[in-house]
Amino acid sequence: PLTVRSQAMMALTDWALVFDEILQPIESGESLVDLLKVLLQSTHSSVAAIAAEAAAKLLFANRLCDSNLIAELLVLYFDPNTKESSGAGSSIELGSTTRMQQCLSLF
């Protein structure tokens, strides 16, 4: 279930890189940016890591420019609770905090 959701989030992010309309709010007024902000505040570290990677990808591609989103990413990057000290293979897994730290180090 988390694997499917993480792949769906990354697919939406990739679509947003190609189609600007995906970043626009839908009829209910919510947007992909709003979803990212909610997921970044998740208590599950893997969900927050996936959202951080998606947000970093969109920011790096210059698709987003949201100061609140950048602030949340900075908090995640410097939060000592997001440091992971597990094995060498964990950095490749989608949702690992090591991978999130590597993505956020671009900024």
Explain the layout of strands and helices:
Elements: H1 2-18, H2 32-40, H3 45-60, H4 67-78, H5 97-104
Summarize the structure.
This protein is mostly helical and about 110 residues long. The protein contains 5 helices and no strands. The protein has helices spanning about 1-20, 30-40, 45-60, 65-80, 95-105.
The oligomeric state is single chain
| Low-pLDDT windows of residues | 85-89
Q: What amount of the residues lies in strands?
A: under 5%
Number of helices: 5
The ordered H/E elements are HHHHH
**In angstroms, what separates the terminal alpha carbons?**
30 Å
Class inferred from helices and paired strands: mainly alpha
* Shape annotation: globular
What number is the mean pLDDT? 85
Count of individual beta strands: 0
Rg over CA atoms, rounded to whole Å, is 13 Å
Fraction of residues in H or I helices: 55-70%
Largest sheet: none
